[in-house]
Specification:
259 residues, mainly alpha, two-stranded antiparallel ribbon, 13 helices
C-alpha cells in the first residue's frame, strides 16, 4: 500500500507539471494520431491486395495494433520517463544517491516514481483501435480475461527488460542500447507468424517481443489456451525476478557518483 500511495503521489505531481504546458498536449495528440495513423494505413494498404497475411485478417491485425498501442502507451507513460535516461542521470549524475537515501525501495523510485500522463492518449487510441477490430466479432469472456492477464504479463516483461537494460549502466555507464531496444520494440506490432523461424524463436524466447502484443491478441481472437497463459505468467515472474537480482547486483557494485 505504501508503494501504491507513492505511485499515486508521483503520478499526481507529474500530471500537474504536464498540464502547466498545455501546448505539449496538442503536440502529443498530433504525434500519437500520426504514428497510429501510419501503422493503420500500412495495414489497410496491404489488405487491399490480400485477404489475409500469415493467417491474420484485417480485423485481427487491428486488434494486434490496438494491443500494441495500448502497451506502448503504458510504457511511455510510466516506464520510459524513469529508465530511458537512467545511465546518464542515475549513474553518472548521482541521482541514484538520492534514491538510496529514501525510506522506500530504490528500484521502485528509479523505475516507477515519475510518469508522463499526456502519453495516456496512446492508451485511449489503442483501445479505440482494439474496439474497431473486434466490432464484428465480440470475443468470449475467457478470451477477454486471457487477453487482460497476458497484457499485464507483457507490461511486467516490458518493465523488467527496461530495468535489465538500465542495470547495464552499473558495469558500463557509457553503453547505450536504447536504439537497439526501440528498434526491437517496433517488431512487436507484427504477428510473429510473419517472421522466419529463427527470428520468431528469438522474439518469443530470448527477447520476448511476442508477449507484448502478438500473444495477447491471439488469446483475445482465438480464445484462451491454458498452456500459453501459464507460460506468459511464468515469463513475467521470471523476468521480474531477474530484474530484481540484476538491480541488487548492480547496487553492490555501485560506489556513489558523489563519493
Amino acid at each position: 500500500m505504501k508503494l501504491l500511495r507513492l505511485f499515486g503521489a508521483g503520478f499526481s505531481m507529474s500530471l500537474r507539471r504536464s498540464i502547466a504546458f498545455r501546448v505539449n498536449l496538442v503536440f502529443d495528440v498530433l504525434l500519437a494520431f500520426t504514428g497510429l495513423g501510419t501503422a493503420i494505413a500500412a495495414v489497410l494498404i496491404v489488405f487491399t491486395r490480400a485477404d489475409t497475411l500469415a493467417g491474420w485478417s484485417k480485423a485481427q491485425f487491428l486488434v494486434l495494433i490496438g494491443t500494441y498501442q495500448l502497451i506502448t502507451g503504458l510504457r511511455t507513460t510510466f516506464i520510459d520517463p524513469n529508465l530511458s535516461w537512467f545511465p546518464e542521470t542515475g549513474i553518472r549524475n548521482g541521482k541514484l544517491d538520492a534514491y538510496l537515501l529514501q525510506p522506500a525501495s530504490s528500484l521502485f523510485l528509479a523505475s516507477l516514481s515519475l510518469s508522463s500522463p499526456l502519453q495516456l492518449i496512446q492508451v485511449v487510441l489503442g483501445l479505440g483501435v482494439l474496439g474497431w477490430g473486434i466490432a464484428d466479432h465480440v470475443p468470449t469472456t475467457g478470451g477477454f480475461v486471457s487477453w487482460f492477464l497476458l497484457v499485464v504479463a507483457g507490461l511486467v516483461v516490458t518493465w523488467a527488460l527496461s530495468v535489465l537494460l538500465a542495470c547495464l549502466a552499473f558495469w558500463a555507464p557509457k553503453l547505450q542500447l536504447d536504439v537497439f531496444y526501440h528498434s526491437a520494440w517496433q517488431l512487436g506490432r507484427y504477428p510473429t507468424d510473419v517472421f522466419a523461424r529463427p527470428l520468431r524463436i528469438l522474439l518469443t524466447y530470448v527477447f520476448p517481443m511476442a508477449l507484448i502484443a502478438s500473444v495477447p491478441a491471439t488469446a483475445l481472437l482465438r480464445g484462451p489456451q491454458l498452456g500459453v497463459l501459464i507460460a506468459g505468467v511464468a515469463a513475467a515472474g521470471g523476468a521480474a525476478g531477474l530484474a530484481v537480482l540484476a538491480w541488487r547486483a548492480g547496487l553492490r557494485r555501485y560506489s556513489g557518483a558523489t563519493s
